[in-house]
Fold this protein.
Amino acid sequence: MMSKTISGFSKLSKSNKIDWIVNTYFSNTEEAKRILKQYWNNNEKLQQLHDEFIENTVTNYYLPLGVAPNFLINDTLYTIPMAIEESSVVAAASKAANFWLDRGGFKTKVISTTKIGQVHFMYHGDFKKLQSFFNYVKPILIKDAKPITKNMEARGGGIIDIELRDKTEDINGYYQLHASFETLDAMGANFINSCLEQFAKTFKNEGLLFEGFSEEEKQIQIVMSILSNYVPDCLVRAEVSCKVEDLSDNDLISGEDFATKFVQAVNIAEIEPYRAVTHNKGIMNGIDAVILATGNDFRAVEAGVHAYASRHGKYSSLTHAKIVDGIFTFWTEIPLALGTVGGLTNLHPLVKLALELLHKPSAKELMQIVAVAGLAQNFAALRSLTTTGIQQGHMKMHLMNILNQFEANEKEKEILTEHFKTNTVTHSAVVEAIKELRVKN
Ligand code: MEV
């Protein structure tokens, strides 16, 4: 189909935007409109709130919000909210929660909470002069940012430090103001970016006036000012451990065999990037689901986590496991820059509800809960992979998707769910079973 361009689209009303889309791209315009409108909320105020989160909203995109109960974290029980479309994730989280509930639960601790932002700039001249300019201007940078930092400082956060970094070995004339921040319960993106943009302004203006510089040296060029989503010093640890013999909960595998295979699986992910990426993807199944449910930025977390997984120059596992003196220990240390105030957290009613479900956590507490969701997900995945294989659980959960594809009615769902309790679920087996059932009736 031929498409066409449009100018001034963002200025059209919502209904005119929809008209343009359906008339340009759809043969059945009424049906396309119906589907888009089917997801509108009846509550106009609530719909308007969602419309205004982004530009050009035409409808809402639903994801299921599930909950995984029975998570014992540092002796407190949590029911964890998860927004995710993948069939088996919440079931796996709940299973892992129950497994560890009987074995002491999860232990967590926040290791560090520092975030980074940088002003990238170009300077062509004597480095020593730049250094003395920086020493002179640093207190002025901090002073000029006071209107932005005042409230954060009153709560115990703010700018931790600003360093001058020489990057001229990589790019001719390239330097940075490398700043570190403590943003408490805020994820801090707006706070950090506002500080950085103020630093850049002050830095440039003071440079023009600095008497130690030649005329050329005064012309500092700011390239950009932006926070970093790489947060290796905003780290949280989550851990489970128990006696090896307590690991078995069935007759099929001994605790010892399970622990050995499990550690082997983790070791493989530690040294083999092809496996590590999938292994970590499974961890992110848990992490992203909680991050979405709590209104945090999963792209920021994803970018930071994967960079961290490569910090030694080779992509590797985010979890680790060991058996020492008959004790099995499985843990992760993961960078998570999260917020429980600001952003969507005060705006989106479901996000507020999710945070209340989690006992209204501080950002530090949320870091620990999210890390646990990741560790639990990885535990469930490795447990399946090293014992029954992943497909058993996956396909069981996927059964409902296939049944829905074939528009199975309630009665058919009931009969086939029962049937597949004792038969292996494959796509073709389900299709066959539906056909057979429909022929019979
Ligand atoms: C699927 O979404 C995630 C897994 O592939 C993770 C893993 O292999 O560890 C099951």
